[in-house]
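Second opinion, please. Please look over this fold, written as tokens:

===
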Amino acid sequence: MAAQRQGMAMAVAGIGIGLAGAFALTRMMESLLYQVKPTDPQTFAAVVTVLALTALIASWGPAFKAALVDPTIALRCE
């Protein structure tokens, strides 16, 4: 399941970069928020969870299909 590992590695990197960008832009967003702190940990945790689960599901499908293919048939096609 190397494909799934690679997909999740990219997702974790993207989530990390996105969190850093979100924290950097909190002062600009503060005026747009209503009854929510700009650095609300519950909101950030919910977004990270949803994005990680979405990436896991998206990378699991192709990795599962690739694992079902017989290697000799895959090599013969190339």
Observations:
- Residues 41-68 form the longest helix (28 residues).
- The mean pLDDT is 84.
